[in-house]
């Protein structure tokens, strides 16, 4: 009997011990979404009108006002420029095709003077490049050039307005309706969130971004033209478009660069329908709101620890031994208190034997990544487990 048992045991040892050990498994307790520590900041939203703020690459900071679409004044010219550059793309320093001022263009210019519209003087036979016209459109906000560009592009202002509304639909601007290319008509309406969406799309056109950052330019006949956006260079602002009428109040769609450590972030926002008895008062009001909002953004948008070092999971071997898993370093992200950040966890098969400091995966959020590592090694299997484990 003893000989039989010894024979069986010898056979088991010969069969079991050489068998390859199964790989360990990794599990984590890291949620798919983590929140930056702290309470969400209360931003100085305007008491009247509406506002919207977002940061490229990070998401929406918030907004105020909401409600129905309202007149936006010359902010409408962002869509005019967008459609023109989409239909007639420019790159680098290209000037583009030439627009020749007609007698009808001159008549349109004179017809707009009594109503106090923003204009640049034109004369019959004057030749403007596409870039000249876009500079006149976006810097001194020339309504007559908006009309001239519309006719040049689509054959008539009505046909161009149809293009504007089609582009709005394509971009998902559900609360926007254009009735003219300049925004002078109060029937041209939109919302702050819609116009932030449009501004983000327009800024992807390098020539558009270059033009709206100009403080001044020189064009034929009118000569030196100045950008009406007095916030250029203040709080990092590099565009985009002012707008003011009696019905719209003061409006500004803006973009600003802010530095967080070695990173440069782009804030895109809109503040609409600010009060004032006239254009200067309206623009002072809207500029004040924008400055306060951007100052608050700078105070709150920083680098925060999203995931500290410490146990965040474990490695478990087939024989039940475990080793804690922790981030190799704190996972730090740029954001603001209370913001939700999507997190991606990737694990790798660690093999059968687990050693201390072994990389078993990674965790990533907001473009930052740290390794997941074992705190200790896992105990080796006992001889008994190896001999008695099931096939």
Automatic annotation (TrEMBL):
Q: Which InterPro entries match?
A: Beta-lactam/transpept-like (IPR012338), Peptidase_S11 (IPR018044), Peptidase_S11_N (IPR001967)
Q: Where is the active site?
A: 74 (acyl-ester intermediate), 77 (proton acceptor), 141
Q: Which GO terms describe its biological process?
A: cell wall organization; peptidoglycan biosynthetic process; proteolysis; regulation of cell shape
Q: Does the keyword Cell membrane apply?
A: no
Domain of life, source organism: Bacteria
Q: What GO molecular-function term can you cite, just one?
A: serine-type D-Ala-D-Ala carboxypeptidase activity
Which UniProt keyword terms apply here?
A: Carboxypeptidase, Cell shape, Cell wall biogenesis/degradation, Hydrolase, Peptidoglycan synthesis, Protease, Signal
Query: Does the entry feature the keyword Cell wall biogenesis/degradation, yes or no?
Result: yes
User: What residue stretches are annotated with the Peptidase S11 D-alanyl-D-alanine carboxypeptidase A N-terminal domain?
Assistant: 70-270
Q: Which residues bind substrate?
A: 241
Q: What family does the entry list?
A: Belongs to the peptidase S11 family.
Q: Which PANTHER family match?
A: D-ALANYL-D-ALANINE CARBOXYPEPTIDASE, D-ALANYL-D-ALANINE CARBOXYPEPTIDASE DACB
Protein name per its UniProtKB record? D-alanyl-D-alanine carboxypeptidase
Record organism: Micromonospora terminaliae
List the taxonomic lineage: Bacteria, Bacillati, Actinomycetota, Actinomycetes, Micromonosporales
């Amino acid at each position: 009997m003893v000989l039989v048992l010894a024979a069986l045991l010898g056979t088991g040892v010969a069969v079991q011990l050489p068998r390859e050990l199964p790989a360990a498994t990794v599990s984590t307790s890291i949620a798919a979404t983590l929140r930056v520590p702290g309470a969400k900041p209360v931003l100085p939203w305007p008491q009247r009108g509406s506002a919207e703020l977002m940061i490229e690459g990070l998401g929406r900071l918030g907004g105020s006002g909401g409600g129905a679409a309202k007149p936006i004044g010359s902010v409408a010219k962002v869509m005019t420029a967008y459609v023109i550059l989409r239909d007639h793309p420019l790159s680098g320093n290209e000037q583009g095709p030439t627009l020749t001022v007609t007698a009808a263009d001159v008549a349109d210019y004179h017809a707009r003077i009594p109503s106090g519209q923003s204009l640049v003087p034109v004369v019959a036979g004057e030749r403007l490049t596409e870039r000249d016209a876009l500079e006149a459109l976006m810097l001194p906000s020339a309504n007559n050039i908006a009309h001239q560009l519309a006719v040049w592009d689509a054959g008539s202002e009505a046909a161009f307005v149809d293009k504007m509304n089609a582009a709005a639909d394509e971009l998902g601007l559900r609360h926007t309706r254009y009735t003219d290319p300049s925004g002078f008509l109060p029937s041209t309406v939109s919302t702050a969130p819609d116009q932030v969406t449009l501004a983000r799309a327009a800024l992807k056109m390098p020539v558009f971004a270059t033009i709206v950052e100009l403080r001044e330019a020189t064009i034929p006949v009118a000569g030196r033209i100045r950008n009406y956006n007095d916030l250029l260079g203040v709080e990092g602002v590099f565009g985009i478009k002012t707008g003011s009428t009696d019905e719209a109040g003061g409006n500004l769609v803006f973009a600003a660069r802010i530095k967080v450590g070695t990173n440069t972030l782009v804030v895109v926002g809109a503040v609409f329908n600010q009060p004032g008895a006239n254009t200067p008062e309206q623009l002072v009001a809207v500029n004040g709101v924008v400055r306060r909002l951007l100052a608050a953004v700078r105070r709150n948008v920083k680098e925060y620890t999203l995931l500290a070092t410490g146990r965040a999971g474990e490695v478990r071997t087939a024989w039940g031994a475990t080793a804690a898993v922790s981030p190799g370093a704190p996972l730090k992200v740029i954001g603001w208190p209370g913001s939700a950040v999507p997190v991606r966890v990737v694990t790798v098969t660690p093999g059968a034997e687990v050693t201390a400091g072994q990389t078993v995966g990674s965790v990533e959020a907001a473009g930052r990544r740290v390794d997941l590592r074992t705190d200790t090694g896992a105990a080796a299997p006992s001889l008994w487990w190896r001999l008695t484990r099931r096939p």
